[in-house]
Design a protein that fits this description.
Length: 151
């Protein structure tokens, strides 16, 4: 018998790691439900309100805040585009953009939890792994013995 096998001993933190994996998986469930519940279309970008001055010398905007103008800001081909949102479209664009923001937040939380679960699974694997068997003292491996015979 060339190797001595040590009795299997579970490291003390394996149980704790299993509990952490279960907690992380339970934390993912509300995010999965929220992502699957989205039915209405999403509107990418950011819904912003900019204040502009009209240029009339007697207008109130010259003395204080400007006139509000609503835009959808988004990136296309590496450039930022500002798309004017008219008064009739404001509500639909704002709601679609709100759904998009919420969707992205849940997606980011899922990615973070997935990474955490993977790290915990790797730690559990390390905790459960047996140490490599140690060779018995005074014995040569078969490979070395064959090498000696051929020379």
């Amino acid at each position: 018998m060339p190797y001595v096998l040590w009795a299997y001993q579970m490291k003390p933190d394996a149980s704790h790691l299993r509990q952490e994996i279960l907690r992380a998986e339970e934390a993912r469930a509300p995010h999965v439900r929220a992502l699957l519940a989205v039915r209405d279309p999403l509107r990418r970008g950011s819904f912003v309100v900019l204040r502009r001055k009209c240029g009339k010398p007697t207008c109130h905007c010259n003395e204080g805040e400007g006139h509000p103008a609503k835009y959808l800001s988004l990136k296309e081909s590496g450039r930022t585009r500002m798309i004017y949102v008219g008064p009739g479209e404001e509500m639909a664009v704002a709601e679609g953009n709100g759904r998009y923001r919420s969707f992205r937040e849940h997606r980011a939380a899922m990615a973070k939890l997935s990474k955490e679960v993977l790290n915990l699974i790797n730690a559990l694997e390390d905790a459960l792994a047996l140490p490599s068997p140690k060779p018995v003292a005074g014995r040569r491996s078969r490979r070395k013995e064959k090498g000696r015979e051929s020379t």
